[in-house]
Amino acid sequence: MINIDKLIIGFDSALRTLLTPAQTLRPVPGSELPEAELTDAEKHLSGALMRVNHVGEVCAQALYQGQGLTAHNETVQETLMQAAREETEHLAWTERRIAELGGRKSLMNPLWYGGSFAIGVMAGLLGDKWNLGFLAETERQVGAHLAGHLERLPNQDKKSRAIVAQMKIDEASHATMAVSYGGAELPLPVKLAMKLGSRVMTQTAYWV
């Protein structure tokens, strides 16, 4: 049975994610670097890629809130909440970089959040080993996606690259943590379905 207090906390987290500027305890990676001279095309590319990354962090917040809501074990709940706290920092970093590049956040963020939250709730209901397995696989796929962005970002846009590089390190840490707490390897069809859903989201968020 879902605790009413958790529902209230989850609702509050949704409002904070969607409506208020995210906060970070760690310094923004690359904040000490000078702003590079970028062409309009390069700014557009960097801004679009950082918007996609911001959407990914909105989805991560929703996933972890949904998973934490239905997780059975308190240790698993804390693991998910720790990951969510670090993802909040990623949210702040990408949000700030989008503004610096003169871009905008995705207009579909409420939809991304709602869908991801529902997926997180379902993953939690399957049991803790699958819940953690879903977390680990999500982070692996996000890490691969970030690696692709490092290849596409302009070489001179060192501020964006520093943010993405640190995010990649953090995502790998979350995946390792989930496996260490007993996360199960997901079946191949589930992994492929996750990749397909991620592809739809990233391609849409690049433009909208």
Write down the domain tally: 1
- Distance from first to last alpha carbon: 37 Å
> Proportion of β residues?
under 5%
Shape: globular
Which CATH top level class fits? Mainly Alpha
What is the string of SSEs from the N terminus onward? HHHHHHH
The CATH architecture assignment turns out to be Up-down Bundle
Tally of separate helices: 7
Helix content: over 70%
CATH topology: Ferritin
Please give the oligomerization state of what you see: single chain
- The CATH superfamily turns out to be Ferritin, core subunit, four-helix bundle
Rg computed from alpha carbons, rounded to a whole number of angstroms: 17 Å
Features of this protein?
mainly alpha, globular, 0% strand, 208 residues, Ferritin
Give the SSE layout.
Layout: H1 4-19, H2 40-70, H3 74-100, H4 109-125, H5 128-152, H6 158-180, H7 188-207
Helix pairs in contact: 1-2, 2-3, 2-4, 2-5, 2-7, 3-6, 4-5, 5-6
How would you characterize the overall build of this protein?
The protein contains seven helices and no strands. The protein starts with a helix and ends with a helix. It has helices at residues 4-19, 40-70, 74-100, 109-125, 128-152, 158-180, 188-207. The mean pLDDT is 88. The protein is globular and about 50 Å long. The protein has a single domain (40-207), classed as Ferritin (Up-down Bundle), CATH 1.20.1260. It is mainly alpha-helical and 208 residues long. Helix 1 (4-19) runs antiparallel to helix 2, helix 2 packs parallel to helix 4 and helix 3 (74-100) packs antiparallel against helix 6 (158-180). Helix content is 76%, strand content 0%.
